[in-house]
Amino acid sequence: MMHIVTSDNLPIYQLKLEQAFRLRHQVFVEEKGWSDLAKSDGREIDQFDNDDAVHMLCEREGEIVGYQRLLPTTKPHLLSTVLRQLCDLDLPCGDNIWEWTRYCVKRSHRERGRKLSPVATELLTAIVEWGMDHEVDQIVIEMEPIWLLRLVQLNFMVTPLGIPRQIEGEDVVAVLAKFDERTLKMLHSIGGGLPLTAAPTVAYSAGEQLHA
């Protein structure tokens, strides 16, 4: 089950969102070692968890096992204020362009090798479905370069915004990814996972983490 949480329905989702913040801490701090994000209460929250954010929570049997966040590019967001060095072009900005951040899947619900897990597929599908319902057709992403291939295979039209740079010991590239009904059709078709014939298994062996 996918939950879309905004400032309008936040009061009824406080407990589920708390789970999501703890999942973010588990993935980005405890697993990936991003110590700058560490919090003593085990909740990873930043300045962009504000009234403009759209939180997408994937739930299985009462547990939040996947999470991602969308931010409007017309307001301060990660690329415009923290990771500006990743963009060598004009910053993408518009009501139809949102930034995709903090994507994560609980370790027990990831696929190893060359497939997207059902949770990962559901999260990606939620972005496209939500976008098409809200006149959004492009997303800004900061991610590992190897994910360029995966997005193209999913029928996203991807444009790099700069060259990869090292952040927290990892190569990261900013891209603008456009989607449409062909992207949604592909996501609906793959269901439990898409074999990636050209992607090296080792790149995903630790889990399906794209970006910040």
Q: Could you characterize the architecture of this molecule?
A:
- The protein is α+β, with helices and mostly antiparallel strands and about 210 residues long.
- It has one domain: Aminopeptidase (3-Layer(aba) Sandwich).
- The protein has 5 helices and 8 strands; from the N terminus they run βαββαβαβαβββα.
- Strands 1, 2, 3, 4, 5, 6, 7 and 8 form an 8-stranded mixed sheet that branches.
- β7 and β8 form a beta hairpin.
- The longest helix is centred in the N-terminal third of the chain and has 18 residues, at about 15-30.
Radius of gyration: 16 Å
CATH homologous superfamily caption: Gcn5-related N-acetyltransferase (GNAT)
Which residues form runs of ≥5 with pLDDT under 50? Answer: 192-209
- What does the overall shape look like? globular
Mean pLDDT: 89
> Tell me about the biggest sheet?
8 strands, mixed
**Could you tell me how far the N terminus lies from the C terminus, measured between alpha carbons in angstroms?**
23 Å
Specify the helix fraction band. Answer: 25-40%
Write the CATH architecture name: 3-Layer(aba) Sandwich
Structurally, the number of domains stands at: 1
- What order do the SSEs take from the amino end to the carboxyl end, as H and E? EHEEHEHEHEEEH
Count every helix, treating DSSP H or I runs of 4 or more residues as helices: 5
Assign the structural class, choosing from mainly alpha, mainly beta, alpha/beta, alpha+beta, or little secondary structure.
alpha+beta
Overall strand count:
8
Q: What is the CATH C level class, in words?
A: Alpha Beta
CATH topology, by name, is Aminopeptidase
Give the amount of beta strand, in percent. Answer: 15-25%
